[in-house]
Description:
The longest helix is centred in the first third of the chain and has 14 residues, at 23-36. A six-stranded parallel β-sheet has the order 2-7-1-8-9-10, with helices on both faces. Strands 3-6 form a two-stranded parallel sheet. It has a two-stranded antiparallel sheet with strand order 4-5. It has a single domain, classed as P-loop containing nucleotide triphosphate hydrolases (Rossmann fold, 3-Layer(aba) Sandwich). The chain starts with 11 loop residues before the first strand and ends with a helix. The protein contains eleven helices and ten strands. The protein has helices at residues 23-36, 61-69, 76-79, 90-96, 103-115, 138-145, 159-172, 192-200, 219-223, 236-240, 242-247; strands at 12-16, 41-44, 47-49, 52-54, 57-59, 82-84, 119-123, 149-155, 177-184, 207-211. Strand 9 (177-184), helix 8 and strand 10 form a beta-alpha-beta unit. The chain is α/β, with parallel strands linked by helices.
Amino acid sequence: MTPHSHSRPFSCFVTGTDTEIGKTFVSCALLHAFAQSGARVAGMKPVAAGAVWREGAWRNEDVEALAAASTLQFPQTLTAPYVFSTPAAPHIAAAIDGVTIDPAQILSCYGQLRDQSDAVVVEGVGGFCVPLTDYFDTADLAQQLALPVILVVGLRLGCISQALLTAQAIAARGLVLAGWVANTVDTEMAYVPENIQALAGRLPAPLLGHIPRFAQSSAEAGAACLDLSLLNSLFPRRLESSASAQRNL
Length: 249
Ligand SMILES: Nc1ncnc2c1ncn2[C@@H]1O[C@H](COP(=O)(O)OP(=O)(O)OP(=O)(O)O)[C@@H](O)[C@H]1O
Ligand SMILES: [Mg+2]
């Protein structure tokens, strides 16, 4: 794979075929790759469910991992405006905490991060269509953020249909699928090359990398598996002046 130093930063929305399939891992890898190119980057997790109370705030693993991979540090109220204590679907976790997620609040936080960064990597919640309120889901959020989408495919039996359905949902929202990443979830999975080939022939975006299962995962190791130069031809103008182009969206 091309070294990550060839990557240029751009803000994106990272979604996945399911929960627990490597969205945070790939988001951190993207942040690391962008940081390697000298960019000032920040991760954002608009809605996080499952947290422990520590040092005066609710702490969530994803939020902390994204912050660790970011070069810019912002208050958690901006990078993670909704952190819920219960590890459950967001609208359920929010109800348990007596909170209603306000999409305008998320957009406002994102705008503040974007204005102070070269690129913001926004990690979605669960799969692409997870409800956030009775009337608003993660797909709506991605649409309102108007960001190119990176799809993480968790390699296991069933992932082909999950990935193709997600790509359809992304296109139905008028969003661009900028690229996809094959991330090893089931190390016992049979016919991995055939599965990847089936997806590569059907997904309307480049495969940015195939990530093995690491004994110890790190943003750096993940970044080394990604060829982000494949994105350059897709977003030449946005990539050349990512910060200003994003501001004009
Ligand atoms: N390629 C990999 N090699 C080693 N560990 C990995 C790899 N991909 C993911 N993991 C680990 O698997 C777990 C789940 O991954 P991750 O947290 O990135 O999933 P997610 O899709 O963000 O989940 P959620 O829906 O909860 O946000 C984490 O402990 C992560 O470090
Ligand atoms: Mg995550």
